[in-house]
Amino acid sequence: MFYVFGIHGPMYQGGPDRLSQIAAVRGVQRPSGLRASSSGIESQEAQARNPDLLHHLTARAQGAVSAYLGTKQGPKEERKRLYLVRDVMTRGAVTVTPELTVEQAWQVLASKKIAQAPVLDAQQRVVGLLLRADMAPLALLPEPGALRDAIALAKRPVTEAMLSPVPAVAEDTDLRRVAHVLLDTGLPGLPVTDDLGHLSGFISRTDILRAVASDPPLDLWG
C-alpha cells in the first residue's frame, strides 16, 4: 500500500500504478547535489588513464567472486527470504520539523551522516521529505554578496525546501513495488507510515542494496 501526504494531510491511498498519475508525485525530480560528483564517463576515462587503478579494481572483483564462492561451502540451512518493506526498512529514522531553518536541518542530517529525513508536523505525521542535496548550508557558501539567493535559502524554513506532497509506503508492501516507485520518482527512499501518516521508519535505495548483498537473501524474483 502506498500513500501521499502533504501539509494538509493524506492525499492518496492505493497501489503504485495510480501513484504515478498524481501530478505532485510525477513531478518529483531527482535533485542535483550542491557540488556535482564525477560522471560515470569521467570515471571510466580516469580508469583508462590509470591502468594500475584498473588492475586494482579487477583484483578486488576477483576477491569478491572468491568470497562469494566460499559462502557456497557454508551450511545449507533454510533461510528466510526478504519480501516486504518491514524486512529491510530502517526503524527509528531521523526526522526534522517544519519550523527548523534549512541551515539547522543541514546540521542534523550532516551529524547523522544521512542524506534525507522525513519532515513531521506537531502530530508526528509525515508532511514532507527533506533532501540534503536540495540544501545549501552557509558554511559551504562563498562570502555574503556572491550568492545572496543561496544564503537566503539557508535561512528559510524547512517547509520551503522540502518535497511535499511526498509518497510514503506501508510496512507490508512488496519490495518490488517500492523499487519501481523509487525508479519512477527518482527519490532516494520513502517514509514508511500507516494510513494516517504516522512514521514507523524509512526505506532507502541503500537499504534495498544492502539487503541484496546480505544474508538471508532478498527475494526480488520469487
Task: Describe the protein in words.
The chain is an alpha+beta fold. The chain is built from 9 helices and 8 strands. It has helices spanning 16-19, 23-26, 40-49, 51-71, 85-88, 102-112, 148-155, 175-185, 205-212, and strands at 2-6, 9-14, 90-91, 116-120, 126-131, 166-169, 189-193, 199-204. A 3-stranded antiparallel beta sheet has the order 2-1-6. The chain has a 3-stranded antiparallel beta sheet with strand order 3-8-7. It has a two-stranded antiparallel ribbon with strand order 4-5. Strand 4 (116-120) and strand 5 form a beta hairpin. It is globular. The two termini are 20 Å apart.
Key features of this structure:
222 residues, alpha+beta, 3-stranded antiparallel sheet
Outline:
By secondary structure, this protein is of the alpha+beta class. The chain contains nine helices and eight strands.
In spatial order, strands of the major sheet run 2-1-6
- Element-level helix/strand string: EEHHHHHEHEEHEHEEH
Radius of gyration computed on alpha carbons: 20 Å
Percentage of residues in strands: 15-25%
Query: Ranges with pLDDT <50 over ≥5 residues?
Result: 29-49
The number of strands is 8
Query: What would you call the shape?
Result: globular
**Sheet having the most strands:** 3 strands, antiparallel
What is the count of DSSP helices, taking H or I runs of 4+ residues? Answer: 9
Let me know the average pLDDT. Answer: 76
End-to-end C-alpha gap: 20 Å
Structural class: alpha+beta
**Fraction in helix:** 25-40%
